[in-house]
Amino acid sequence: MHEFEFIDWIRRRVGRPKGRRGVGVGIGDDLAVLRFGGRVLLIGSDMTIEGVHFTFKTATPRQVGHKALGRCLSDCAAMAGVPLGAIVSVAVPKGFSNRVLKDVYRGMIRLANRFDCPIIGGDTSTSRRGLVIDVCLLGACEGNAPVLRSGARPGDTLYVTGRLGGSILKKHLTFEPHIEAGRWLAQHLPLHAMIDLSDGLSSDLNHLCRESRCGAELFESQLARAVSPAAKTLARRTGKSPLVHALNDGEDFELLAAIGLGPEKFPPLPPHVQLLPIGRITRSGVVELVTTDGRRKRILPQGFRHF
Ligand SMILES: [Mg+2]
């Protein structure tokens, strides 16, 4: 079974969250939304697994910790939320180095301190093989409503907060979660929908369109300006084009935002917010690339598949 068929199966059996006490948004967004005591709370979890999300051959232990917490913080950024605290559970193989494990936590704690998101609990267990880190993040919305994947409207411009592709060369271990940018966008612009790019633009844009029941077109001329230098370096090794890497590589952890405002009408952006236009939301129901010579190509989800 495909990962998303499995998630749909769970969603159907769990039922609609509407009417359930406290649940604003259930399965299907970057984080779940709970309404409790007049506050909007956000909650979600991510597993980071040795051999799947990292290997100690290419990642330092501190980078592994950074990534494990950073992935959850990026989901929080995509909801335009602020983090409150994290529950971190680890399964550690027998004989695993104490020094390495402590360095993994040091990487996590450094990021946690920077975002004022203390580690407030967790579980420790053993694994048969490889280190497994599960981070459950609790956040809140302050000064804005949570931004969902489902609010995009035809005519919205699509923007990304940074350049895309080739993250496997380094960025998947060192990325900065865009917490401040996510909140700024929600508080200053007609921001209708947002998702963080973890699986890859082709997959994550398809998720956003599916939840919003709309389509999208990406303009090759604009997307070319959002291709990262790493995508170009990687393309020389793989023989694929840099554009294909920008479309399909996962783990850029940039935000993809659908905003009801074209780039020509923007107020000045603060220094921590970068926005690159890449396309627009359409009524079509499909995601397409408009090439520089005006042809249309269907973009199917080809980013990272978990199983
Ligand atoms: Mg996400």
Topology diagram in text:
Blueprint: H1 3-14, E1 23-25, E2 32-36, E3 39-49, H2 61-78, E4 82-93, H3 98-114, E5 119-121, E6 124-127, E7 132-140, E8 157-160, H4 171-174, H5 179-188, E9 191-196, H6 201-212, E10 215-219, H7 220-223, H8 229-238, H9 242-248, E11 255-259, E12 276-282, E13 287-290, E14 296-298
Parallel strand pairs: 4-5, 4-6, 10-13
Antiparallel strand pairs: 1-2, 2-3, 3-7, 4-7, 8-11, 8-12, 9-11, 10-12, 13-14
Helix pairs in contact: 2-3, 2-5, 8-9
Written description of the protein model:
This protein has 307 residues and is an alpha+beta fold. It has helices spanning 3-14, 61-78, 98-114, 171-174, 179-188, 201-212, 220-223, 229-238, 242-248; strands spanning 23-25, 32-36, 39-49, 82-93, 119-121, 124-127, 132-140, 157-160, 191-196, 215-219, 255-259, 276-282, 287-290, 296-298. The strands form two sheets. Strands 1, 2, 3, 4, 5, 6 and 7 form a seven-stranded mixed sheet that branches. The protein has a seven-stranded mixed sheet with strand order 9-11-8-12-10-13-14. Strand 13 and strand 14 (296-298) form a beta hairpin. Helix 2 (61-78) packs parallel to helix 3 and helix 2 (61-78) packs parallel to helix 5 (179-188). The radius of gyration is 19 Å and the shape is globular. Magnesium ion (MG) binds next to helix 2.
